[in-house]
Design a protein that fits this description.
By secondary structure, the chain is of the alpha/beta class. The chain has a single domain (24-237), classed as Alpha-Beta Barrel (TIM Barrel). It contains eleven helices and twelve strands. It has helices spanning 26-30, 50-56, 69-72, 84-96, 116-130, 144-152, 168-171, 181-197, 209-218, 239-243, 259-275; strands at residues 4-8, 13-17, 33-34, 37-38, 42-46, 62-65, 102-106, 134-138, 157-162, 201-205, 223-226, 234-237. An eight-stranded parallel barrel has the order 5-6-7-8-9-10-11-12, surrounded by five helices. Strands 1-2 form a two-stranded antiparallel ribbon. Helix 2 (50-56) crosses helix 4 and helix 8 runs parallel beside helix 9 (209-218).
Length: 291
């Protein structure tokens, strides 16, 4: 996939020009799993800004505007304080910055649990204000009725089972799920319930590997793993974790870079140049016009 650039004359910044192509759709994503098999795993990463979406879009099948932005962008202690306004603003930015990947927006805590009608009101707002193709909500069997309600009204839903961060207080922390027989059975039952209710895909987070494999086999829709198994139908990670923006990350994260160290080094170089009056130099200033 090739990308050209155009100059924004108002800012002098070069921005990617979308290559002519159709964006991936929910049916195209679900069709990637045929007869219980996904030949080419689905690639999903989080994105919160237009520029981040521009960079990730050519490489991803789906971009998730996750409520993890509460911690990553806003420095909140958990996802529980994330608001609808936050999700809509960042979701719209990611849609504007992408042209290939299917964009999914998380529904924040408290925006869908009361009733299917409440979920529809908030999900329809997300869809209308962002232009995203789908929403994601946490919960298994308890959310099946809501998923069916939304799906029947034209709102595609990605479900999320296993370790559900919005339920961190009830779960007692962010530890892996499925170590007991009861948990094992519940996760499989939850996955089946949301898939049968109409979810087009299921995120399985922080579950022991044999459960992830069993769930992937048990449901007809794609299962996207995060801290699960390479045998899932796809994978998702928080992009900032994958790039090394944070010193500590969950066990299931593979760091593909060390962006934090790079940023720190470049900020140090900039500070040194400013203090030495070496920046701005002749190339960065506007000389007076000659008479």
């Amino acid at each position: 996939m090739s990308t050209t650039f155009q100059i924004d004359t108002s800012t002098s910044r070069a921005t990617p020009t979308p290559a002519p192509m159709k964006r991936l759709t929910v049916p195209k994503i679900t069709r990637r799993k045929q007869d219980g098999e996904t030949a080419e795993p689905l690639v999903m990463l989080t994105a919160y800004t237009a520029r981040q979406a521009q960079l990730l879009d050519p490489h991803c099948d789906m971009l998730l505007v996750g409520d993890s932005l509460g911690q990553v962008i806003y420095g909140l202690p958990s996802t529980l304080a994330v608001t609808m306004d936050m999700m809509c603003a960042h979701g719209a930015a990611v849609v504007r910055g992408s042209y290939h990947a299917l964009v999914v927006v998380d529904m924040p805590f408290g925006s869908y649990e009361t009733s299917p009608q409440q979920a529809f009101e908030n999900a329809s707002r997300i869809m209308a204000e962002t232009g995203a193709a789908a929403v994601k909500l946490e919960g298994g069997t308890a959310m099946a009725e809501t998923i069916a309600f939304l799906s029947a009204r034209g709102i595609p839903v990605m479900a999320h089972v296993g370790l559900t961060p919005q339920a961190v207080n009830a779960l007692g922390g962010y530890m892996a799920r499925g170590r007991s027989e009861a948990e094992h059975a519940k996760i499989i039952a939850d996955g089946r319930a949301v898939a049968e209710a109409g979810a087009f895909a299921v995120v399985a987070e922080g579950v022991v590997e044999d459960i992830a494999i069993a769930l992937t086999t048990a449901v007809a829709v794609p299962v996207i793993g995060i801290g699960a198994s390479a045998r899932c139908d796809g994978q998702v990670l928080v992009t900032e974790d994958m790039l090394g923006m944070f010193e500590r990350v969950p066990r299931f994260v593979k760091k593909y870079g060390d962006i934090a160290e790079f940023i720190s080094e470049k900020a140090s170089e900039y500070a040194r140049d400013v203090r030495a009056r070496e920046f701005p130099g002749p190339e960065q200033i506007y000389p007076a016009k000659a008479d």
